[in-house]
Amino acid sequence: MNKTRRNHYVPQLLLSEFTDENGILFFVNNCSQTPVVKSSSPTNLFVKRDLYRHDGELINVTTDIEEQFGKLETLFAPIHQEIIGSIRKGLTPEIDSSEKSILIDFIVAQSRRTLDQRNRMRKTA
């Protein structure tokens, strides 16, 4: 199976909420000595090559983690749009228990998807 090598640790569906009318997102790179505002599309932000690949020989990861995140994002996308749409209208979002379950799964997955968390998991492995 061909595995994805460019992995987003912040989903593009979330990043797209912060783009301008041309689909551009503005950001500050905190790693540079002098912070400068830059621009990019969500496709090129919060992405790392081989994020889920283990560097050592002790583990053989057979699950395509990015594919699993993608499936969860597909389930979450309409719920996300419903929440954002309600808030933009000044309403309180109303989601049912199955949607709440997906929302919780998405939030937990995101907490495990950060670079810091991935680095901790690699050290543990």
Short description:
The protein is α+β, with helices and mostly antiparallel strands and 125 residues long.
Write down the Rg.
17 Å
Helix content: 40-55%
Total tally of structural domains: 1
Beta strand count: 4
* Rounded mean pLDDT score: 81
> How large is the share of residues in beta strands?
5-15%
| Residue windows where pLDDT falls under 50 for at least 5 positions | 57-62
- Classify the secondary structure makeup into a structural class: alpha+beta
What does this structure look like?
The protein has one domain. Helices cover 44% and strands 11% of the residues. It has a two-stranded antiparallel ribbon. The protein has a two-stranded antiparallel sheet with strand order 2-3. It is α+β, with helices and mostly antiparallel strands and 125 residues long. The protein has helices at residues 12-15, 65-88, 97-113, 115-124; strands at 6-8, 25-28, 37-40, 47-49. The protein is globular and about 45 Å long. Strand 2 and strand 3 form a beta hairpin.
